[in-house]
């Protein structure tokens, strides 16, 4: 067992983190990379240092170790013509992209959850093929490993799935203390041990045999995961092979797979229990014959209903159970109301507010590129350059033969066309599911959503649904354009109970904020009778509930979100109208709710456009 | 770059494989749309397909992938120096990345050349590169609409026309368009859906046995790609021969009037707008027959291709719960008078 000099045990999670680092370095070029869930801080820095040190020890110094921000333009990633250098030299000067420069090394991608999906697609393709194709068509080798620093704090943002799919390892450092990482005094000693078969892990991996039952177990684990991805099963076997190589083994044992499951599915994230626990350690060299019992996944500890507390490595049931306790599933159990985003892969739309559009109508000339890949507009560039020619060519007037000297154009002359097009809208439905007419209302709201989605292709609109009843509002449908997804999540909605109107307004404003951060314009549609009776803190207090609702309504108006309040009570009341006024919403009494009427109101408002 | 995973070694996914082979045999089908989960072998299949089609004759240095017999007008290599060295190369397999700009796709004024040497030159784009090969668009449902429009236009006409920045260029761009995506992340507009020839749905294998088979083969390929290719070489050759034979034969496959009538009935029953459904059905049935080395298309051919040729052309009814595949199958059994399933 690994022990520090003072005799205390190393936190098994930190041991896992170091094992991941060893796998990452040993399998450089064979496994895509790692998703590192951690906030900035000394623990993460320490881990990155450890990977760097291992990498240097293995392959010698000087190999690429490039850190890039998530906002890197796709052109910078793949490379192309360096315009400034080209103009200075008078001949095309090619510049290698980041991916090609990282060949043979590591790319550390900061704030990976903010990566645009186009960049994610390019990096993912390079991870698949090992080459990067520049914008001028040059193909260059780009075999690198990726460390994606995922700093997302909640489900609002997620790694683009084009990238997340290709990252083999998943490590979470949140919750590890500095003490665990920094007081680990023999880290250096352990790093000094050379990894087995330095530089040629691939051939060693080839020599390792994989027994059929391990393969079956890997397949079973992947079946149990949400979406049952085949790729994950391949990842597991690959990592299990590397683990076997690290231990100088000749075949993959079930406990290798158990460790692989832990490292690939991000299961080292649950807080540790008090009693010291035997953990799989990176000390394969010293722990070969006294090989530790295959540790159960730590995540399983607080899951009494899964059977992981009985470690029996040969049982594939155990692995299935372990997988079921994996991060995604845990998250789902813990937070039923927020699991939607975790469950469904996103496509990385979290690019912040869009400043430039690539299409639409030309709306003026600007001197800075409106978006990363913008190309200069030739005519306006020339127009900007011409007045300076006399200054730049002192012999402009002196040419006797009347021939014009070549134009001198500097990068500062470049002009770009700015485009403007109508932004996409997202209609957020907040539906009152309380009381006796709940089912009917919900059914009509569902109908309205499906009708809207049915014809939203052209307008490129999205729809979200919040239902509120009991003590809280629940997001039933994250903003989506997909009818398939909407249908799936709209089946079987419960109704009845009191009315937490204030909570619903708050949730709607949250989603509206999220929508706006994605560069779309939100439209909130409330379907309610306006008589909230649950306050924000969940207490049944009609007066407080009314005040809370009014306050949030004014808050929403101050934020400037467009909203519609559809009053569905049989007899519209002044208080509801008052609420609509506070939120500066369009007020539509609709005593008999029907899907087509709601659809008509919302469509009219959406097609008014947000500019 | 390593040789891609062999096509014949792909486990299951028969419908997708069939559709891709048909598109390779009959390029006028109008492309294939593959919708389904991630990691189900979509990209693998498309990349593997390019290995199966026979090598193309070309000219060294040509950036338009010209057929030496019919060089493109704007191609500086083939048009001006027709005696350049001939080379043979694999059919191009071009990946259209999500972030690609219109300039990059259809080609544009070579800005660097224009600014540095004042020369007005055309820089061919991805469409020229894909000429006589395949153009693969992963996540086609996330691509900007105007780009999808452009792709489908060129795929249908076989010619890329660029009229911009003082350039006027036409060059041939005949390719098989393959789009893929996950419908949960967004859908394609019906107008665009309709313009794809075939549409198939794929999903991860649900039974453990075929999953293990996938793992075994993939693992073997990763550990020793060459040995794996050697093992599958015979199957690959057989399949390649089928494609070559199919390409030759597809033009002469007979289709009886009775079958034509049946196709028309089927399309009417399903309320498919326009004639594109029938045309695709006809071409696909011919391609299917040609692939099986038959001189005449049979009822089985039509029944096998009908779901993939029609599934995406149905009028959408947001309140209809039944999946489109069920609706096609239902209509087929009504028209053909017998229950069907994919062969």
UniProtKB/TrEMBL annotation, chain A:
Region (Disordered): 271-316, 344-369
Pfam families: AAA_lid_2 (PF17863), VWA_2 (PF13519)
Transmembrane regions listed in the UniProt entry: none
Gene3D superfamilies tied to this protein: Magnesium chelatase subunit I, C-Terminal domain, P-loop containing nucleotide triphosphate hydrolases, von Willebrand factor, type A domain
Residue ranges constituting the VWFA domain according to the UniProt record: 426-553
PANTHER family named in the record: MAGNESIUM-CHELATASE SUBUNIT CHLD, CHLOROPLASTIC
UniProt name for this protein: Magnesium chelatase ATPase subunit D
From TrEMBL, chain B:
InterPro entries in the cross-refs: AAA+_ATPase (IPR003593), CHLI-like (IPR045006), ChlI/MoxR_AAA_lid (IPR041628), Mg_chelatase_ATPase-isu (IPR011775), Mg_chelatse_chII-like_cat_dom (IPR000523), P-loop_NTPase (IPR027417)
Entries under CDD domains matching the protein: AAA (cd00009)
SMART domains assigned: AAA
Keyword Isomerase attributed: no
Chain segments carrying region Disordered: 316-343
Pathway the protein acts in: Porphyrin-containing compound metabolism; bacteriochlorophyll biosynthesis
Reaction catalysed by this enzyme: protoporphyrin IX + Mg(2+) + ATP + H2O = Mg-protoporphyrin IX + ADP + phosphate + 3 H(+)
Pfam families: AAA_lid_2 (PF17863), Mg_chelatase (PF01078)
Similarity comment: Belongs to the Mg-chelatase subunits D/I family.
Name by which UniProt lists this protein: Mg-protoporphyrin IX chelatase
């Amino acid at each position: 067992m690994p022990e520090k000099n003072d005799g205390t045990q190393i936190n098994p999670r930190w041991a896992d983190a170091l094992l991941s680092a060893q796998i990452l370095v040993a399998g450089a070029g064979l496994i895509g990379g790692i998703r590192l869930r951690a906030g900035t801080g000394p623990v993460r820095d320490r881990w990155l240092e450890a990977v760097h040190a291992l990498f240097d020890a293995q392959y010698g110094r000087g190999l690429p170790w490039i850190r890039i921000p998530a906002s890197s333009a796709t052109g910078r990633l793949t490379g192309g013509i360096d315009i400034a250098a080209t103009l200075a030299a008078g001949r095309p000067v090619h510049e290698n992209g980041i991916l090609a420069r990282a060949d043979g090394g590591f790319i550390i991608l900061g704030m990976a959850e903010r990566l645009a999906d186009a960049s994610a697609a390019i990096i993912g393709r390079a991870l698949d093929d090992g080459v990067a194709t520049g914008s001028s068509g040059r193909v260059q080798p780009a075999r690198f490993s990726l460390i994606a620093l995922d700093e997302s704090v909640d489900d609002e943002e997620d790694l683009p799935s084009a990238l997340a799919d290709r990252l083999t390892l998943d490590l979470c450092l949140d919750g590890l203390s500095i003490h665990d990482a920094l007081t680990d005094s023999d880290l250096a000693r352990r790093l000094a041990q050379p990894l087995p078969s330095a530089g040629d892990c691939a051939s060693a991996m080839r020599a390792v045999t994989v027994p059929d039952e391990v393969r079956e177990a890997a397949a079973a684990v992947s079946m149990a995961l949400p979406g049952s991805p085949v790729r994950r099963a391949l990842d597991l076997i690959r990592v299990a092979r590397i683990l076997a190589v690290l231990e100088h083994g000749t075949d993959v044992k079930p406990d290798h797979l158990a460790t692989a499951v832990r490292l690939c599915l991000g299961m080292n994230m649950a807080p540790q229990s008090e009693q010291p626990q035997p953990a799989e350690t990176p000390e394969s060299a010293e722990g070969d014959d006294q090989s530790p019992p295959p540790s159960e996944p730590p995540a399983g500890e607080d899951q009494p209903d899964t059977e992981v507390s009985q470690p029996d490595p040969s049982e594939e049931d155990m692995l299935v159970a372990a997988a079921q306790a994996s991060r995604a599933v845990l998250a789902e159990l813990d937070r039923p109301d927020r699991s939607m985003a975790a469950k469904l892969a996103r496509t990385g739309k979290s690019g912040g507010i869009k400043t430039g559009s690539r299409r639409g109508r030309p709306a003026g000339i600007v001197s800075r590129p409106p978006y990363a890949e913008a190309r200069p507009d030739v005519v306006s560039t020339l127009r900007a350059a011409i007045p300076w020619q006399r200054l730049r060519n002192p012999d402009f007037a002196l040419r006797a033969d009347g021939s014009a000297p070549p134009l001198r154009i500097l990068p500062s002359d470049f002009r770009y066309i700015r485009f403007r097009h109508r932004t996409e809208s997202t209609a957020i439905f907040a539906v009152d599911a309380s009381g006796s007419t709940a089912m009917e209302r919900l059914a009509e709201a569902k109908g309205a959503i499906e009708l809207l989605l049915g014809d939203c292709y052209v307008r490129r609109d999205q729809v979200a649904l919040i239902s509120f009843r009991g003590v809280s509002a629940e997001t039933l449908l994250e903003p989506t354009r997909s009818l398939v997804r909407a249908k799936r999540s709209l089946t079987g909605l419960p109704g009845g109970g009191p009315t937490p109107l204030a909570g619903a307004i708050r949730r709607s404003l949250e989603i509206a904020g999220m929508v706006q951060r994605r560069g779309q314009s939100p439209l909130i549609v409330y379907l309610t009778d306006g008589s909230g009776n649950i306050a924000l803190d969940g207490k049944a207090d009609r007066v407080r509930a009314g005040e809370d609702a009014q306050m949030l309504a004014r808050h929403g108006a101050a934020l400037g979100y467009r909203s519609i309040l559809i009053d569905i009570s049989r007899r519209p009341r002044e208080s509801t109208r008052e609420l609509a006024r506070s939120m500066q919403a369009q007020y539509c009494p609709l005593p008999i709710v029907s899907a087509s009427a709601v659809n008509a109101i919302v469509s009219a408002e959406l097609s008014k456009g947000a500019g | 770059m390593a040789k891609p995973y062999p096509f014949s070694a792909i486990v299951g996914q028969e419908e997708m494989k069939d559709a891709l082979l048909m598109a390779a045999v009959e390029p006028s089908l109008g492309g294939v749309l593959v919708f389904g989960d991630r990691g189900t072998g979509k990209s693998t299949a498309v990349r593997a397909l390019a290995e199966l089609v026979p090598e193309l004759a070309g000219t060294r240095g040509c950036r338009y992938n010209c057929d030496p017999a019919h060089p493109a007008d704007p191609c500086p290599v083939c048009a001006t120096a027709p005696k350049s060295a001939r080379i043979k190369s694999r059919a191009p397999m071009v990946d259209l990345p999500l972030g690609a700009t219109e300039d990059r796709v259809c080609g544009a004024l070579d800005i660097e050349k224009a600014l540095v040497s004042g020369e007005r030159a055309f820089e061919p784009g991805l469409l020229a590169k894909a000429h006589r090969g395949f153009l693969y668009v992963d996540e086609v449902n996330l691509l900007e609409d105007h780009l999808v429009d452009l792709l489908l236009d060129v795929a249908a006409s076989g010619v890329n026309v660029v009229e911009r920045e003082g350039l006027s260029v036409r060059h041939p761009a005949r390719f098989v368009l393959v789009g893929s995506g996950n419908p949960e992340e967004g859908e394609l507009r019906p107008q665009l859906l309709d313009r794809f020839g075939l549409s198939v749905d794929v999903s991860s294998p649900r039974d453990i046995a075929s999953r293990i088979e996938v793992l075994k083969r993939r693992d073997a390929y990763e550990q020793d790609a060459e040995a794996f290719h050697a093992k599958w070489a015979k199957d690959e050759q057989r399949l390649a021969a089928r494609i070559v034979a199919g390409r030759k034969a597809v033009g002469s496959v007979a289709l009886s009037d009775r079958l034509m009538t049946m196709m028309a009935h089927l399309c009417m029953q399903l309320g498919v707008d326009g004639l594109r459904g029938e045309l695709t059905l006809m071409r696909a049935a011919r391609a299917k027959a040609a692939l099986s080395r038959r001189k005449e298309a049979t009822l089985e051919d039509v029944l096998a291709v009908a779901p993939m040729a029609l599934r995406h052309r149905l009028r959408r009814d947001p309140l209809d719960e039944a999946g489109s595949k069920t609706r096609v199958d239902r209509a087929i059994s009504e028209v053909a008078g017998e229950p069907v399933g994919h062969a």
